[in-house]
Amino acid sequence: xxxxxxxxxxxxxxxxxxxxxxxxxxxxxxxxxxxxxxxxxxxxxxxxxxxxxxxxxxxxxxxxxxxxxxxxxxxxxxxxxxxxxxxxxxxxx
Length: 93
Hints:
Blueprint: H1 2-16, H2 22-29, H3 33-45, E1 49-51, E2 54-56, H4 58-77
Antiparallel strand pairs: 1-2
Helix pairs in contact: 1-2
Pfam families: HTH_45
Organism: Nitrososphaera viennensis EN76
Protein name: ArnR1-like winged helix-turn-helix domain-containing protein
């Protein structure tokens, strides 16, 4: 789920700056190009993105919103020993 979030967030960021290019999305999501291509195919099969031109569907935007809500909820609950930040932080009650 985190990888999907990283890719969708990178696409969203790039779209605010103009056109989303796969190499830029690759760099922002910190993936090897072959892995990015595989994940893009998966996201497209789940109807979360379109690849030509690269963009996010309504379902992809819904995923980003839901992911943010879940992440915020976990942070608010202060779940111990769960790294939800992606930065190695541990949240305690």
